[in-house]
Write a structure and sequence with these properties.
CATH topology of the largest domain: Aminopeptidase
CATH class of the largest domain: Alpha Beta
Low-confidence stretches: none
Radius of gyration: 23 Å
Strand order of the largest sheet: 1-2-4-3-5-16-6-15
Strand content: 15-25%
Shape: elongated
Mean pLDDT: 96
Distance between the termini: 27 Å
Number of helices: 10
């Protein structure tokens, strides 16, 4: 595996940065410590410009190449925020903050991009400009959207943008990518059921919102099974069911919350329409009422064809062609990097994290063996893709 020699030399430092970030997780836009660490390092590396407060707490560094020619402006993005999960790894560098942990590898993403920034600022062996983006609030806060709406792309003249995420279960040193949709749109549902409270021993005098909710959960799956074209993809998951306070009272109300995942606008429209109908008429048939709210979230992450081929070629240079899956099956997870790809052409690639716990699991840990691979990918991507 042709790891960049200088990157291999930096791997120990990058690992230390990663573990420090891991030990001090921050949520959503409240990433002041992490953003401060990133900004300080970018300045120390000698970046030509370091901007803070982009999209509230995002950080952007600009590094100009020294090779002749105009070249392109290529942006690389990493996410900085953690998750509200209690860590259960027992690692020496485990989270020092109760109820918060880096359970998605954003600590590794940030550290690898910092390593690439240091390498690029030292060598500047490229034409054009590298823009390194450190984004807050990927985990549900749409920080990518906030940075785009803050004028980031125009302010820094970004022409192409690239993202990367670790992939548990994929061997270290391997990559996966595909043209077109690679991650799903994520929408959210909220259902408020109004029944009729009663004594649990006299259910005939009430309308049980728990039973109504159970029927709604079951009937929702018929939309995926019988309304969505079988060759298309959709997910409808109820993840919250709240009702009642004691064991001998049928409650008056129940609350359901969940998520819907799709890849195509027509399927997304169908899911919204049919779920609303199923909720309304299931409740009505049982004598209850239900208020249905459907909120659209992150859009589909669509990789652009040319940029996907560029990213795959760089990954093959680092890992070998046989270790790059260019037709990775789409995943139903969502990513707000989609907002950046809607603003500029680019591509999002997965990098193997080895045999680790899954993302968002309390025993997950970013694999430090990935660091030289991912950092080398970023470095070579800039040195190649900036050429006009």
């Amino acid at each position: 595996m042709p790891i960049v020699n200088r990157v291999a030399d930096l791997a120990k430092d990058i690992t230390e940065w990663r573990r420090d970030i891991h030990a001090h997780p921050e949520l959503m836009y409240d990433v002041q410590r992490t953003a401060g660490l990133v900004a300080d390092k970018l300045k120390a590396f000698g970046c030509d410009e370091v901007a803070t407060g982009i999209g509230r707490t995002g950080v952007v560094g600009v590094i100009k190449g020294k090779k002749p020619g105009k070249g392109k402006v290529i942006a690389l993005r990493a996410d900085m925020d953690a998750l509200p999960i209690e860590e259960a790894t027992g690692l020496p560098y485990k989270s020092t903050v109760k109820g918060k942990m880096h359970a998605c590898g954003h600590d590794g993403h940030t550290a690898m991009l910092l390593g690439a920034a240091r390498y690029l600022a030292e060598t500047r062996n490229f034409a054009g400009t590298a823009v390194v983006i450190f984004q807050p609030a990927e985990e549900g806060g749409a920080g990518g959207k906030a940075m785009v709406e803050d004028g980031m792309m125009d302010r820094f003249g970004v022409e192409e943008v690239y993202g990367m995420h670790n992939y548990p279960g994929m061997p270290v040193g391997e990559f996966g990518i595909r043209r077109g949709p690679i991650m799903a749109a994520a929408d959210y549902i909220r259902i408020e059921i109004e029944g009729q409270g009663a004594h649990a021993a006299r259910p005939h005098l009430g309308i049980d919102p728990i039973l109504v909710g159970a029927q709604i959960v079951t009937n929702m799956q018929s939309v995926v099974a019988r309304n969505v074209d079988p060759v298309e993809s959709a997910v409808a998951s109820v993840c919250v069911f709240q009702a009642g306070t004691t064991d001998n009272v049928i409650p008056q109300t129940a609350l359901l919350r969940g998520t819907v995942r799709t890849f195509k606008p027509d399927v997304q429209d169908l899911m919204e329409k049919r779920l609303a109908e199923v909720v309304e008429y299931t409740a009505k048939a049982m004598g209850a009422t239900a208020a249905f709210n459907y909120r659209r979230g992150y859009p589909v992450l669509n990789n652009h064809a040319r940029e996907t081929d560029v990213a795959a070629a760089i990954a093959a240079e680092i890992a070998g062609k046989e270790r790059v899956d260019i037709d990775l099956p789409p995943v139903m997870g969502a990513e707000d990097f989609s907002y950046m790809l809607n603003a500029r052409p680019g591509a999002f690639i997965f990098i193997g994290n080895g045999d680790s716990a899954g993302l968002h699991h309390p025993k997950y840990n970013f694999n430090d063996d990935v660091i030289p691979v991912g950092t080398s990918y970023w470095a070579r991507l800039v040195e190649t893709a900036t050429a006009a």
